[in-house]
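Limitations
The structure tokens in this dataset are predictions for the assembled complex, not deposited experimental models. Users should treat interface geometry with appropriate caution, especially where small molecules or nucleic acid strands are included. An illustrative entry is reproduced here so readers can see what is and is not provided.
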Amino acid sequence: MSREPNYEAIALSPTIGWLLLAAAVCAVLLFAIHHEKWRRWWLTAEDPRGIAVFRVVFTFFVICNINGMWEFFGYLYTDEGVFTTDAARQMFAGAQFAGYGDGLTPDDPEGFYDAAAWWQFLRGPKYSLLYFWDSPTAFWIHLWAFEIAAVMLMIGFRTRLFGVLTWFLMNGILARNHLAWEGTEVVFRCMLVYLVLARSGHAYSVDNWLRCRKLRRQGKLSEPGGPGGGAGLAPSAADPEGLEPIYRLIPSWPRKLIMLQLATIYLTTGTLKTGGVWMHGDALYYALNLDHFYRVPPQYLASLAGTTVFRAMTWAVKVGQIGFSAVLFGLVARWIMREKFAPLSPFAQWSARLCFAALIGLSTAIIYVAYPVHVTPKIPVQAFASLWFGLWIGLWLLWLRLGRKPFVIRRVFGLKLDRARVIDRAWVCRWVLGRRVLLVWHLAFHAHIFTLMNVGQFQTGMMACTFAFLEGREIASIFRDVAWRVSTLLPAPLARRVPARIRERAPIIPAADPTLPRHHHDRETLPTWALGLAIAGILAGVLVRIELAPSWDYRLIWLATALILIALAATRAWRLRRGKADAPAPPDGRAPWAYGPLGRALIGGLIVWHLGAVMIWLMPAKDCVSTFRSDARRAVAHYLAVTTTSQGWGMFAPNPPRHNVFMKVLVTDQNGDVWDMRRDVYAEEKRPIPWIWNTRERKMNRRIIGGEAGPKTYRKWYARWQCRQWALEHGGEAPFKVELVKVSYRIPTPEQLREQGYYIMAERLAAHGHESVSYTARCDREVMGQLPNFIRARHDLPLIDEDEYRAWHKHRPRKWAERHEHEAKRKARREQKAAERWAEAMARTGQ
Amino acid sequence: MALLLAVRPIDLAIFFTLGGLWLFGLGFIVVLYRWIRRFEAEGGDPDALRPAPVAAKTTPPATRLRPARGEDFNGRQPAGQRA
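Predicted assembly:
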């Protein structure tokens, strides 16, 4: 849907850009000052049981998600489906296949034209075998390979290998066709990458079971009740080889990325829900009354609670989504308190305070600048900016007070407590910003959606992420207590057969002893000047891009900076290795490093890059950032796409739909008879109540017919497929035409429903529904509207003359040749422009 | 009343669905919070290992409401501060 640009906001965009850049620099400096905390948070090792449970649960739902599309496998992912092989290549990976011939004409043989065409494909980001082999047989082979790989990942057999295969094969299926994509796919694609990067097979896996069995046989395993108690034993004079732990420590950063990703999803979707329907509290009402979603009819309840309870629940969702990310603050703050870091020097402390104050000031400045050109609350800009400024200063002062002089509560509502309660930072982090509050909100939110609405595996995938917030010892304690509780409920003969460890509620098996010499305890760190160099390098790249716009890729500055830092880290790692053995473990029981100095530099850099890329990518599509947003996103787009972490979280944002929209497909056969294919919920048989099993058909229908944002091109492809499919099912005879009809009715407002009473969907559709033809395809004239001979031959149908088949000629050989010329011209233009900018900049410097 | 008479049984299903969810949720929260208390009491939560700040505050002398010099409110000596 096009809209009038907000020119005043666009004019402010450069100012907003500089303010944002300054804020980003302050944030980076703040973290750099606290670099010891930053690197210990991301780069230490931990108990593997937390991520292991996430692996089992999440992978199960990965399988469910793909299998949930079983009705449409042929339609979505084979050459007999809505997009034939060449159409899918062009539609979803056009740039990658720019140098690939379809074999439709003699001058366009199938295959890559040259080495450059190969390279064009290999650059990605859509790596799918189904772009090359997508007959129904080939698809089923692909699917079964995925199923086997995913089950192996779930049970933890050759975990890393099958993790990579699951990721590749799942994305191979999804990349072949985007028509059925929901937010669900984005969740599974992002989280699966983090899971694959984790060493999740170190616990609750066949891999670890086999390893322990082998070590036990060799007498090298530390076991509960024995030396080391299961946590491993360092080599000693008595036992020169030592004993291996049951649960080896693993890098913690993938689990922490999952936590951060979940918080990011909530924060993004919460802040994007800015529409009037959300503000008015009616979003739940409209979402629940969408006929494509509800499991049981909600209209009667909506007529009673639409203007009261539903509004409270809507605002609870809005506030909860924005506030959920505070759980990370609570987690990190508690962790910092536990770790007892050495205090910063006074200079560093004041620098950190200055950076935080600058962040507050800059965010206030952004509000002050942007406020007048946006739809805002009806209060003056000065008042709103002051409120924002005051809020953050107040929170800051409150945090300082909690640390220095906590509140002591002796009475509540006049009643004396049995003992005084102290409200300090730890208490706030547990009871306000804690997992016990915000994860319960998260579970409650998704449990409500899952119970009332059917949106596939989105909820299950999101709820599975809850396990990433639990540490290994917590998971082990939960399992221990559940097993013990179950054992107490068993009848005596059965209970006697339960292992004694469970019956006695024995202590959990500890993870590997952090002081084992196998772990990294070195004190190597990059010098402060290196952090300064990193920040300066990143900033220099940005400024060069803005001020000079050089013809060469400005990201080379970032690459050079990264290489210098890696070289520095490698030198230090080499010196450490040459100089002496790893430092002994400190006596404080802190977690060891997950890697040596070089590994820490590499992974630390990757984490910083990834976080920056996701933040840039999620910048909202507002006019006030329009002059730099697309350029900034271009810098990270390819990385995010290749790693399948590109993302968008505008679910029901800025407003949920207020119309129920369905797609009606009418086929007119060669006799002139019209057939309604009845593929949407206007047809009673497509509306089972209660609705238990999800189908993607409803989502695809909405997307095709325009019930939600999406390209209109899907309509013609769907109509063409209907022409072919009819022919396939009717002895090869194509229909005369296919019409796609948009059927819709407006959902009454909550107030109308309250006053007029509830409605029955079918009756309201009959009384208030609208129908309009959105697309008509004449099957004989439509490009690719005819069933091609290779499919006819596959199904023993009569062949047609090759002239009757109207192929989609993309003229790639000519375009591929022209492309080289265009690129050369573009490069020359860019160089000329860069030279002019350079001259201008020099002239400015001279002045 | 007319509206109430027009209600189909399936229109009431959502009440049972939502009610069931809330009852289950309530039970879950009770079980969860009991488990958390037990977990913390057994020392599973490292925060619970901190000296309990409330114990000393049941009958505090008036002067102890503020930390003594060299101590923070929990009675510990902050790192880097002279005792």
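Some entries come with short summary sentences. For this one: The CA atoms of residues 40 and 47 of chain B lie 8 Å apart.
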